[in-house]
Batch of 2 targets.
Target 1
Amino acid sequence: MADGAQVNDVISTEVLGEIALICIDNPPVNATGLAVREGLSQAFADLNATAEVKVIALYCAGRTFTAGADIREFGKPPRQPSLPDVLNQIEQSAIPVVSVIHGTALGGGFEIALATHARVAIKGAKVGLPEVLLGLLPGAGGTQRLPRLTGLSFALDVILSGRQVPVAEALDKGAVDRLVEGAPRDVALAAAQQVIDGTLATRRTDLIEAEYDRAVLDATLAGVRQKTPHLFSPIKCVEAVAACNLPITEGLKVERQAFLDCMETPQRAGLIHAFFGERAVSNIAEAKGPTRDIAKIGVIGGGTMGSGIATSCLIAGIPVRLIEVASEGLQRGIATITKNLDGAVSRGKLSSDKRDAAMAMLEPSLQMESLSDVDLVIEAVFEQMDVKKEIFGKLDTICKPGAILASNTSYLDVDEIAASTSRPGDVLGLHFFSPAHVMRLLEIVQGKQTAADVLATGFALAKRLKKVGVLAQVCDGFIGNRILAHYGLCAAYLVLDGASPQQVDRALEDFGFAMGPHKVGDLAGLDIGWMTRKRKAETRDPAQRYAGDIADRICENGWFGRKTGQGYYLYDSGYDSGAPVPNPEVAEIIDAVRADKGITPQDFTDDDIVDRYMTAMIVEAARVVEDGTAKRPVDVDMVFLFGYGFPRFRGGPLHYADTIGAAALVARIEAYAAEDAHYWQVPDILRKMAADGSTFADLNKEG
Ligand code: 3H9
């Protein structure tokens, strides 16, 4: 072999006397796609046949060591050589192999390192086995080699959490052998020399006997079943790790089968859709191009929402001027922000130093005029059009030219708000979700005249705030709340027609939602929906069956949910979390309303409930795509995953819709329409998809 050789497009080797270097260069993240696997296999075969080579050091070019298998290959026919085979070849290399980790060595990437004979990490790097987050398990030896190196407990923690482990911790646990500073190639050369000098020990992981404790495995399995009852892959992870007391060839067979079992599940497809969807929502022309600089943000309104938005900006290191009209409001806002930041510290999300730095960047003010120097204003006052218009009219006179004016409205017409200014191009909607410093969704609402750089700045801000920005067009409720309004009606009809609120909640929690809709209502405050129903009373569609009677009567009693101690459920003063007790008086209200309306209650199975609720959600989601409110189905899916607690393993409502199929959905809707032809109508887009056999995934591909 020549001193320097390009094995293929992504793998190169260098032979420098007794040292051979192998470099993986497959941007952006050096994923182990087919070319990497082929090239590595070839390189190891060639170097093992090169007489002078005494040690091989493997490193990666670019920003990171390999981030694992190429996820885009999943679901397609497998191509040889497989990663496990390549790693066995590396492990059995007669010449010692040392790997050099920089950036993030994840999944199959970390598994490559585990199969080498020594691991040197560059400070600041992280390692991890995040396969479980994709509905999988480490399928290239991670479940067998990590416990051999670190013991069971740490290996189970890493595999089940999918977390990225700082290399200092990995060193402490024995998963890496040395921490150094330097560039990957330099470190590779130095590490190889140390192997030759005998100052860096090498050993084969497969020859280490794993420490084994059945009680730890049993306790972990019980914990997994309780914590993630819907998920398949965590159980398979534990089963695979449990085989680490077998000879490695046998253990690897158990792991391989468990990996293939996971690969077949819809959960794997849903979670991988979520992985790519999170990235796809901002991979659009509207999110790219020039942006405006945002050095200081003004937030108008110190209520829960405004304070949450301010907290989010402060955590991201952006100074905030918080505006309220009266000093009590301002003090309340400051107190909420302080509480939010303290909460972030106690949850380990923020250091005390960063909390103090964030607080120092908060400038409270009672003067709207003080917004004259900010680059972006986010208005978060209550949802009343005339109030918003007045504020935006004032902002127009106060703010400097080029400042962006955003409304956090959750349903009002952004174009009408923009029209109250002389600069509608600078106006957009930035719809945060409560609690705004925690929830990752940001709907970026494009007005008719919103300038391209203003929209792109919205996406750039989402990234700085570590949020998932999704483009939405103007309509009542934008993407999420518009769909919610529709399926919320379905939940109300189910109760009106025979189900109990608890049955609806239980069925949907069994489906995977963290909380059923009645528990969510109690948490958010039932008065919010009540106010909306009263506000919309005059414009209500008379042909639409009214579904609010039960909730109205509950609210007339002053029962607004958790904050008043009762709603659909009872929350005694000691109530914190767990299973609340159903409110018996609500059952009486339900009976009375049904009697008043002459409704004979029907029996719904849990499956009926899920089918109707999910179909209602899909119907409105399809319309939102059809009329362009959302750019693509995947945008709707990400809104629901990041803003509405939709079970991530189901991928989102329209990914889930594809698992049912358009034809089956049309048949369902037509059957339900026999009961209520006004509510249950087939969207044209769904009918067309049923006719031509296409899917929402096809629409995503069309972009
Ligand atoms: C596995 O390894 C299975 C094995 O156990 C067994 C096999 C037999 N594949 O996130 P970013 C793309 S399962 C393909 O924006 P960052 C990503 O889509 C795998 N593509 O950057 C994006 O593309 P685009 C276990 C991938 O700096 C671009 O790279 N590994 C992969 O914020 C940049 O990504 C994981 O689960 C991939 N594996 O974060 C790791 N990874 O520009 C998954 C990324 O077109 N990856 N892309 O939108 C990550 O966690 C992050 O990407 C990482 C970088 C932390 C690496």
Target 2
Amino acid sequence: HETPLILPSLLAADWSKVGSEVARAEEAGAQWLHLDVMDGAFVDNISFGPQMVGVVRKASPTMFLDVHLMIHRPDHYLERFLKAGSDNITIHVEARYDTSVADTLKRIRAAGKQCGLALHPDTPFDAAIPYAHMIDLLLIMTVVPGFGGQPFMEKETMPKLEAARDYRDAHGLKYHLEVDGGIYASTAPIAKRHGANLFVCGTSFFGPSDARTAMTDLTASVA
Ligand code: DX5
Ligand code: ZN
């Protein structure tokens, strides 16, 4: 979990040309791509579903697809996201489940994929402790989930990120620490200092016209 990675978030890409946007991220050196699934119920916005994951998978057979499910009943929809080509599936601890968080994490791993748990800015780190030994990734949301382009909630979320890192290191665990929301070359170093190694970048990556320069600047900020 030491190597910092910049993850372009498809939410901020130009969806009129998804295939070439994925290629642009790939050519800029992205190894992981972040896909935000929103259901209009768990969050106040609707984005896309498993079909889009399949489109991205088709556009790039090698990109690691990090799928962030901001939806209720992720366990009900799980097979569809697995089948579409997800490499990591992150579920929210605050969502409603037909089964349970633990059962859903186990099913993702049983399918041979990585699993993550996400925490809303209002949710304390303690909520993740029961699952800490079962996850590959812990996502500390640094904005209220639902929309790109919001400001980084430093004061509200950095103590939690640090707690997540300290707990991991004290217990010999290995989960990645991912931050998502308001990450720029100015804020990524703050998150890095508090333990993050995966940096989701929507506006800061897809906003500028030159993706290579955006990637270089973001990568340098956490080097
Ligand atoms: C927010 C999403 C983020 C979003 C980040 O609900 O989970 O992944 O794309 O966008 P920026 O980087 O613009 O804050
Ligand atoms: Zn996200």
